[in-house]
Amino acid sequence: MLNEDWNNYTRETMQEVVDTMPWSVSIYDPDGRIVMVNRKLCSNVKAKPEEWIGKTAQQLKDEGYIDRTIVTEAMETRKKSYGTTRSRTGVEGLSVCQPVFAENGDIKFFVVSSPVLKDLEEIGAIIQAQQHQANLYVREIEYLRNMMFLNPDGIFESPCMKTILQTARKISRMDCTVLITGESGVGKEVVAKIIHHNSMRKNGPFIPINVSAIPESLLESELYGYTRGAFTGALKEGKIGLFEVANGGTLFLDEVGDIPLGMQVKILRAIDSGEITRVGDTTVRRMDVRIIAATNRDLREEIRKGTFREDLYYRLNVVPIQIGPLRERSADIWPLCSYFLERINHKYRMRKTLSPETLNRLKMYDWPGNVRELRNVIERLALLSNQDEISIDDVQSFTGISLAPKRSTSALQEYEDYEQSRILAALKQADGNKTKAAKLLNMHRSKLYRKLRG
User: Fold this and answer.
1) pLDDT tens digits along 330-342
2) Would you tell me which of 122, 211, 306, 430 could form a disulfide with 437, CB atoms 3.0–4.6 Å apart?
3) What is the pTM of this model?
4) Which domains does the chain have, with CATH numbers?
5) CA distance linking residue 187 with residue 395, whole number of Å
């Protein structure tokens, strides 16, 4: 006879639920008699529901449907019980019997679920494959982060850049806002990445956004996100903004001087309060984001013209960093060329080098596009030059820039250029190994390093 508590449930609804389960399910009343089975169980044991309904687990075992029962243990202990079972058709399952209690502590019924062991093995293999793929993704992310955050040691050798790097490392430990200024292409984002990579937020996201590249009408929704139906053309599920994407990390606002005046007050409020509201929403969201801003404009002049808010300027300019143009720090050209060539050679599997004469002339060029122009020129030369050693003729043929000397040189300068040529030749012969190059030059290693720093 079925338990009265069980009869209070809508059988049809419960039957629909258990029939959706991908493994065998049977439900017992408190006396241990079956009140419901699902389709999967009937399929596995090759039986009709009426052959099981009303019987005890022990009866099913005695009749040979199953080789063991775990319901009896659950009835005795009033706790969940486990065990492997085999049906008369040879299907093995991992059975779990879960008692279900009423509010007064009485048992209402027992639910036995039995995933097939073969299915579990397949699921385990899938999970293992997914875990392996996830580990690959983690390694790829770590690799990409290491690629994104370069090690500046040995790349910037000019005194001014060394001072900037010292400042960047010092302030990285503090969550203050930073304003990086300088001409386009001088490396403002590189410095921002160095600050992030040396901070407590280094395991969080670094999200760069070029303000000037986003239409004014879309800037607010890109930064703050929007809710469903916020405006015509919005995604039906809404969209999170870059402030939320950068949560726990750093948001780099490049070309901050191009932010429209009406939007500036919202940026100021977000920085001051650490809170944002999506477009079309009323919910205030708390953000933990560090702001680093950059611009190639003179923001004081923009303030004077009324196109930039003075209060936002002071909020961003807690720590100012001014990066000089490449033409004023020629000592960085040599190590930058070496760095770019190393990456290009690795990327394209080449062995390109710069001739000493070419490198000396590169140091004399004004580089109006700064580091970005230098990188592009080096990559173009590496790809288009016919020989492993890039010559001055290659530069003039493939770039169109003139490397003719722009200033007269003294005898001392000519000697320094000659010595630099010798060092370059030794480095080439030593495959870039500075210790070996110093021995070839019969020069102390510390002196070679001083010469390399210019």
Assistant:
1) 889 988 998 899 8
2) 430
3) 0.63
4) 4-115 (3.30.450.20), 154-324 (3.40.50.300), 327-452 (1.10.8.60)
5) 23
